[in-house]
Amino acid sequence: MTDAPVPRIAPLLPPDWDAEAYDVMSTLPHGRDNVLEGWRTGKPVAGTHLVCTQLRHPALAKAFLTFNAHFFYASKLPDRVREILILRIGWLRHADYEFIAHVELGRRAGLTDADIEHIKLGPTAAGLAPEDALLLRAVDELKSEARIGAGTWTLLARRFDAQQLLELIFIVGCYEMLAMALNSVEIQLEPGIAPLAATAAGPPRKP
């Protein structure tokens, strides 16, 4: 029998929250409420271990969650676009925790199982809608070159205004940073949430 994996930094779970932790979580009300309800019912929701790990540094967590909350409460981009961007960068960065959490959010935003498979395959996937391929290409360019190429930018600018273009970049950057934290801290999936199966993990990912 092997020992269960443990994170490098343990999450601060709801029973141990103090007033400062509740204040931090007030910046992301839907996240706070989901975490507390999942804990109360004994079915922790995806994302619980991430936000609870962030609570180990309250000032940093509050600053980050305030930034992150913009993409859920005040974004100029459609939810579906947001989730495509997040899922692609999570996939490319081997951040299984991030990817798994956003599969469900993506479905709520209108993504189908076929869409999610296309996101794994990337912008050249057969049957992928051109507008979705453009988003995936933008993510791939940001990941590999830290910039969106001229051709991709021109096409994006026909669809999105200046504020939306800025949000697109910052969403990818936000979730790439989260992927780094998730992978470095080795944050574990919540009990009851299945890992990506080797047979269902999609095509090989770029290093």
Overview of this structure, please?
The chain has 207 residues and is an all-alpha fold. It has 2 domains: 14-72, no CATH class; 75-184, AhpD-like, CATH 1.20.1290. Helices cover 62% and strands 0% of the residues. The protein is built from 10 helices and no strands. Helix 5 (79-92) runs antiparallel to helix 6 (96-108), helix 5 (79-92) crosses helix 8 and helix 5 (79-92) packs parallel to helix 10. It is globular, with a radius of gyration of 17 Å.
Low-confidence stretches: none
**Percentage of residues assigned to helices:** 55-70%
Structural class assignment: mainly alpha
Radius of gyration: 17 Å
Number of folding domains? 2
The count of strands amounts to 0
Shape type: globular
Sheet-strand content, in percent, reads under 5%
Q: Could you name the CATH homologous superfamily of the largest domain?
A: AhpD-like
Q: What profile does the largest beta sheet have?
A: none
Number of helices: 10
Question: What order do the helices and strands follow?
Answer: HHHHHHHHHH
Which fold name corresponds to the CATH topology of the largest domain? AhpD-like
